[in-house]
């Protein structure tokens, strides 16, 4: 059987490390401002989870809830207010936003020094330059932590990323090719030809496509490390909810071929929140260093 990469356990280790770091700091604690527009159930749940983890670590969270009908100018005004508030170290705008709002413009509105989601052009540019002050998007950063802390070898290894989103695929590819990680990276997407053949060459295969059970047994090399970013609901009559959660990887049939694999849930998901907290503490400490 493969080594199961336990995201819950590793995220708890990171929480403890951050708590210990903050315990040695006198004065005010780091503060993250969370912005939620509307009442999308998933967004409500995610924001509540982030607030709960922040409190456990010793980070103040300020929740800003705006109605579904909020205009772009109203959202911009709130972001500008938080940007200029010295008591706020980090700003997170919960995605997805309602369709009438411009997500890219919103992410770029957040001050680079408070953009702990790492989605702005400023932080993505810093990531390209391997600038240590960059805030890296939380899911890719969490994946790198999972790989490092599980002892997965990356130097010179072939890494295949399925997905090219701004949130996962693009920043993850940049991280994997960084000096010190040194993977040889291929990025695949919906227009890629010979996907199965490309994936079969991967020592490290990361699925971030948002489609259930896309990666099947015949796409995975024997002994590969497989990281499943997807979380999808599929019908299940046996569950009270009427659905069950699965990843982008057919875990049941793929796992036996892997050296390492992440489960869904309990793999990448908890790491995203952990890295948000890590970025918040980083922002706070960078600000202290400037004073």
TrEMBL record:
<dbReference type="InterPro" id="IPR046346">
    <property type="entry name" value="Aminoacid_DH-like_N_sf"/>
</dbReference>
<feature type="domain" description="Tetrahydrofolate dehydrogenase/cyclohydrolase NAD(P)-binding">
    <location>
        <begin position="137"/>
        <end position="284"/>
    </location>
</feature>
<keyword id="KW-0560">Oxidoreductase</keyword>
<dbReference type="InterPro" id="IPR020867">
    <property type="entry name" value="THF_DH/CycHdrlase_CS"/>
</dbReference>
<keyword id="KW-0368">Histidine biosynthesis</keyword>
<dbReference type="Pfam" id="PF02882">
    <property type="entry name" value="THF_DHG_CYH_C"/>
</dbReference>
<dbReference type="Pfam" id="PF00763">
    <property type="entry name" value="THF_DHG_CYH"/>
</dbReference>
<dbReference type="InterPro" id="IPR020631">
    <property type="entry name" value="THF_DH/CycHdrlase_NAD-bd_dom"/>
</dbReference>
<keyword id="KW-0658">Purine biosynthesis</keyword>
<feature type="domain" description="Tetrahydrofolate dehydrogenase/cyclohydrolase catalytic">
    <location>
        <begin position="5"/>
        <end position="117"/>
    </location>
</feature>
<keyword id="KW-0521">NADP</keyword>
<comment type="subunit">
    <text>Homodimer.</text>
</comment>
<keyword id="KW-0511">Multifunctional enzyme</keyword>
<comment type="function">
    <text>Catalyzes the oxidation of 5,10-methylenetetrahydrofolate to 5,10-methenyltetrahydrofolate and then the hydrolysis of 5,10-methenyltetrahydrofolate to 10-formyltetrahydrofolate.</text>
</comment>
<keyword id="KW-0028">Amino-acid biosynthesis</keyword>
<keyword id="KW-0378">Hydrolase</keyword>
<dbReference type="InterPro" id="IPR036291">
    <property type="entry name" value="NAD(P)-bd_dom_sf"/>
</dbReference>
<keyword id="KW-0554">One-carbon metabolism</keyword>
<feature type="binding site">
    <location>
        <begin position="163"/>
        <end position="165"/>
    </location>
    <ligand>
        <name>NADP(+)</name>
    </ligand>
</feature>
<comment type="similarity">
    <text>Belongs to the tetrahydrofolate dehydrogenase/cyclohydrolase family.</text>
</comment>
<dbReference type="InterPro" id="IPR020630">
    <property type="entry name" value="THF_DH/CycHdrlase_cat_dom"/>
</dbReference>
<dbReference type="InterPro" id="IPR000672">
    <property type="entry name" value="THF_DH/CycHdrlase"/>
</dbReference>
<keyword id="KW-0486">Methionine biosynthesis</keyword>
<protein>
    <recommendedName>
        <fullName>Bifunctional protein FolD</fullName>
        <ecNumber>1.5.1.5</ecNumber>
        <ecNumber>3.5.4.9</ecNumber>
    </recommendedName>
</protein>
<feature type="binding site">
    <location>
        <position position="231"/>
    </location>
    <ligand>
        <name>NADP(+)</name>
    </ligand>
</feature>
<comment type="pathway">
    <text>One-carbon metabolism; tetrahydrofolate interconversion.</text>
</comment>
């Amino acid at each position: 059987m493969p080594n199961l990469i336990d995201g819950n356990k590793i995220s708890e280790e990171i929480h403890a490390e951050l708590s210990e770091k903050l315990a040695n700091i006198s004065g005010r604690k780091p503060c993250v401002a969370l912005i939620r527009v509307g009442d999308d159930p998933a967004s409500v749940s995610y924001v509540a989870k982030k607030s709960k983890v922040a409190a456990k670590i010793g980070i103040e969270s300020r929740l800003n809830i705006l109605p579904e009908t909020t205009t772009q100018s109203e959202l911009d005004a709130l972001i500008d207010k938080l940007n200029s508030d010295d008591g706020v170290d980090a700003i997170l705008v919960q995605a997805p936003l309602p369709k009438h709002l411009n997500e890219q413009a919103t992410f770029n509105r957040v001050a680079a020094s408070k953009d702990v989601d790492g989605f702005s052009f400023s932080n993505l540019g810093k990531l390209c330059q391997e600038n240590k002050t960059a805030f890296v998007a939380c899911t890719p950063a969490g994946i790198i932590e999972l790989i490092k802390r599980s002892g997965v070898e990356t130097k010179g290894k072939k890494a295949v990323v399925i997905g090219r989103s701004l949130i996962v695929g693009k920043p993850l590819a940049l991280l994997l090719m960084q000096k010190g990680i040194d993977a040889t990276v291929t990025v695949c997407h919906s227009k890629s030809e010979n996907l199965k053949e490309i994936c079969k060459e991967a020592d490290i295969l990361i699925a971030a496509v948002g489609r259930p059970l896309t990666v099947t047994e015949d796409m995975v090399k024997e002994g590969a490390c497989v990281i499943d970013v997807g979380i999808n609901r599929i019908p299940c009559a046996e569950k009270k909810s009427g659905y069950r959660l699965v990843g982008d990887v057919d875990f049941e049939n793929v796992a036996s071929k892997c050296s390492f694999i992440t489960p869904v849930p309990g793999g990448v998901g908890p790491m995203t929140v952990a890295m948000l907290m890590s970025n918040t503490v980083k922002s706070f400490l960078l600000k202290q260093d400037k004073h």
